Amino acid sequence: MMFEAISSLPADPILGLMAAFRADSNAHKTDLGVGVYKNELGQTPVMRAVKQAETRLLANQQTKTYVAPAGQDSFNHLIAGLIFGDTLRDQLGGRRVTFQTPGGCGGLRLGAEFLQKVKPGAKILVSDPTWANHIPLLGEAGLQISKYPYYDYQNHAIRFDAMMDSLATAGQGDLVLLHGCCHNPCGADLDQQQWQAIAALAQKNGFTPFIDLAYQGLGDGIVEDTYGVRLLAETLPELVVVSSCSKNFGLYRERTGSLTVISANAASTKAAGSQIASIARSIYSMPPDHGAAVVIEILGDSTLNADWETELTEVRNRINGLRTELVNALAAKGIDQDFSFIQREKGMFSFLGLSVDQVHSLINNYSIYLVDSSRINIAGINHSNLDYLADSIKQVLSA
Ligand code: LMR
User: What are phi and psi of 354, to 5 degrees?
Assistant: First the structure.
């Protein structure tokens, strides 16, 4: 027998919350767990431009034949334009190769497998904290993970000096994972000067940044959120970038993302592309098409593109507005603790700063679901649950 001795693993810390929330019958249940956008009604709607693009695809798509391990060239061209801007994308020319991937996770794993091939057991420094799934996605490919200090839980700020001291230990052949914007889980983003300092250090010491850009457009704006990635692409000879269309196009289950590798010259990039194609072929052959086909329709059409940008702006403004409303609601309950940092942070997530016991009390006694680290998905808040949430936080803080 092969399977008798298999032991069970606990549910994924984020995805497990989704299942627990669905099974909860409390009328007040509130889902602040997994990072999906929700509107005021608590729904995760299909974006308007996506619906229109799907209607067009249904009418016009002529074939479902195979594409290629790199996915659709037009997706890769358009998504590189979204990440780098058309001008920089064109300037990079043959130094850049972009692969359509099965979501951001697929891009991270494909990138990690590629790096593992290039330099087996290469060291990759990740922020402390980072998204929990970064560790298996990168580590199980064989990369050696270590951490650099990032978030100061007391002062709710980036520990930038400590971070730079740690990055100074990285050199040629080492990788540094950076969150392009909307840091997951803490919401504290690097400012422009800090990105410049990182670019200068990478140039001086020769490490290769690996940027995870999963939330482009949910922080300050579609272009504003790419300051770091564009700066590093302009400045450095080599860069790895993964992007996701899960959040900004709302394509979660369609698994649509990208991996870009930039190298010093077109010949190395061509070789890198051949390696990545072979790895993709050996894992999943080629990425699913539908989400990428939708993105092509949207980014390639000025009317759909404008509507998508408008809706994404609505999403961003709603999240930023909720940040302020949560801070005000907590203050109005007379809670001593200062939560104003939530207003300064960006994207879907912030830490509430609660202990694991307090988090479990919110889950078990109030049916408010959040990650053990006390990370909340701000987009899960609405005007029907805000008061209950603020009240419940007050209760667990004073228990
Ligand atoms: C999250 O951090 O909640 C999202 O990125 C969704 C996921 O896959 O974990």
Answer: -95, 160
Q: Does residue 252's CB lie within 6 angstroms of at least one atom of ligand 1?
A: no
Spell out the domain ranges in the chain: 13-46+304-398, 66-300
Instruction: Give the C-alpha separation, 262 to 386, whole Å.
Output: 44
| 36 closest CA partner among 246, 326, 181 | 246
C-alpha to C-alpha distances, 387 to 8, 333, 358, 359, nearest whole angstrom: 39, 9, 18, 18
| Residue located nearest, by CA, to atom 9 of ligand 1 | 14
Q: Write the class of the CATH domain 66-300.
A: alpha beta
Task: State pLDDT tens for residues 70-118.
Answer: 999 999 999 999 999 999 999 999 999 999 999 999 999 999 999 999 9
Could you please state the CATH topology (level 3) that the domain comprising 13-46+304-398 is classified under.
Aspartate Aminotransferase, domain 1 (3.90.1150)
The pTM of the full predicted model, rounded to 2 decimals, is 0.97
Q: Cβ(131) to ligand 1 under 6 A?
A: yes
Measured in angstroms, how far is the CA atom of residue 109 from the centroid of ligand 1? 15
